Please model this.
Amino acid sequence: MKSLFYLSFFKVKGTVRNQFRTPASALIAIFLILLYGGLVIMAFVTSSDNPAAEGTVDTNTAILIGIGMTALFAFTVMLNKRKALVYDTDAYYLFAGPYSRKQINGYILFQSLRQGALYGLLGCYMIAMFSMAGYFTIPYFLVCFADLTLMLVFFLLLTDYIYMWGLVNEKYKKWNYLPAAVVVICTALVFLWAVHRSGYDLKNGFLLFAASREFYLVPFFGWTKWAIDGFLQGQYLFTLGGTLLLLACCLIVVVFFLRFDKDITEQAVADAEETSAFLRRAKANGGRARIEDGKVKRVKGEFAPGAKAVLSKNLLIMRKTGNFLRKQDVAIIVFYFVISLIVLPDNVFYMFCYMMIIWLFTLIQDSDLLRDLNNYQIYLIPDSPLKKLVYAMIPAYLKIGIIMSVSVIFAGIFTRMTPLDIFQYLIMLLGYSLIFVAGTVLSVRILRSRANVMLESLLRMLIIVAAAVPSLAIGLVIVLLTGMYRTPALIMGVFTVVSLVMNILVSLVIIIACQGMMNGREV
Amino acid sequence: MIEVKNLTKYYKGSLGAAVKNVSLTALPGEITVLLGPNGAGKSTTIKSIVNLLSYEGEILICGCPNNSQEAKKQFGYIPEVPVLYDLLTVDESMEFIGKAYRLEHYKETGEKYLELFQMKEQRRKLAKELSKGMKQKLSMILALLIQPKALLVDEPMVGLDPASIEEVLNLLVELKNQGTSILVSTHIIDVVNDIWDCAYIMNHGEIIRRIHRGEEGSETLKQIFFEATAEEA
Model:
């Protein structure tokens, strides 16, 4: 058993060492720790003494966002069809090594505890961010952390336990849906009740739902909120009650988990191999493995001559996968819209448009462009490097542009914005999308590999900031020189056009500067 | 013809050069082999020749700089690990290369190699559905589709069954007889024992021996290789 603890310890040590293996990655790691840590410290420092104080958003809403984030993670793990207890390297050691079932189960349990604590911290981070300038003290953080971790550990262990029974007999796999269904049905019932009480006003219904005591009846998530609310209201018995309920559930599942003794080695190792291979492919392809592993339609396509064949190929692959928009993108966009609805109910559209810029950061890491950059064939095609680069970029931009347009137009119509407003923001965002795609190319060109996604994101941010500065400066000069500041309605129009033009110009400069990489030797 | 003059390659973060001052020539109508133990710098040399790595030195393919479009039209590259577009079928992969290189007779050439590698039944399969050996064969077909005047092959027999290895060796000889310059990197000497015309032995990033067929006397290529690498050690 001691060797398993050493294994866990060395894995953590290896992960930390890997972050600090080069000066650049060490700097990025330190920067990110300071950035995120600094924000949390700021939430502590600016915390009000009064738990009833309201910050950027209502405290109830902040808690619900934290719980919602962790619930999303728990459900994703639970309903994911691709499961494994451990990675393949661990699986070989665990199942082939001199360990008893109990020791193996103990090791997996420890992993779940670690994972639960990590995502519990992430949930607390969300609560801290949405409690900025409101109430967020260290004891409050500890209560949130303990309850969110317990909730997650329960779901993670339950998922593994059901998975193990699923290996014994296929029919048990369906058990996964049961806890998720119970939680979803209870939450929906409480939400409908709140909407009914608010006279079918969705916004007020949501606020009532966030603050209602009925939510405490929702298993696990409701109990977590009960414990946290209890702490805020000084009702420590509630905190104890909610926490004990979660702890009891965890203990029950731990006992069952440790006592599991069926022989599942063969399938568990096979699943570990498959899942690990999938994750390696996803890592190498910027998350594309899921799409490539999915169903492929048998469609035919024509290839244009020369570099344009790259575009034909990518369009054909897009049609084959039919996976134009990933489910998680829809979920994220809807999530951003809901967040905008909650945080700035009077300016939902504007908030949503800025949230879409954040979405770009998550999407670009997964673009079709990267598939081409990972294949040597594109570098050997005897055609102009500029053409090859442009044709490789077009599908990525098309995809982003269409999703962006549909989302912004839908949000604009839903929030009853004027067509001019929708058009202005759409144009601005399409300009930013172009610079994001160009930024990806530049970051690959500078880094010469896609090994550090974090560094790549930071570089893209810098590129966008660098591109935004001249647009802002030129926009200001135009507004001041032409006296447009007297008519504020025109200012947005000027900035939209200037930022679009600047983004296109900067993107063109980047593309031309990076064309050499399509000869291969610069990547 | 493939001409490499004073090729030196440093990898970022590593202290020494992966390849040091390497010069070699692969003549038309000859099979030139690049031999060496693991980590000798063979793959680095091949990747530099096809311009997938940055390097110092000069590399010409059929008299043109290796990064020029003229050179790219004339060489084929078969990597050690096949890198294919998983969601394209065998036919589509061939069509993609045929169109991208603006080849006029790629369909006929493709048919010939599909027949040779017994892959006709797999032509509608996606690349991701092919076995490891079949992927390697497809990778070869794609490189040969352009009817290259220079062919660079990195560890060609990895993943192939004995019958396929025989087919590939026969094919290399056939291409050589047609006047193609062939540069093969391998660490399995037995595989190229019967087909080599010129051999460069590499160790620690340097060429330590060059030998032409006929100069080996009573020694086998394997013996020469072990002597050279042992002296170096």
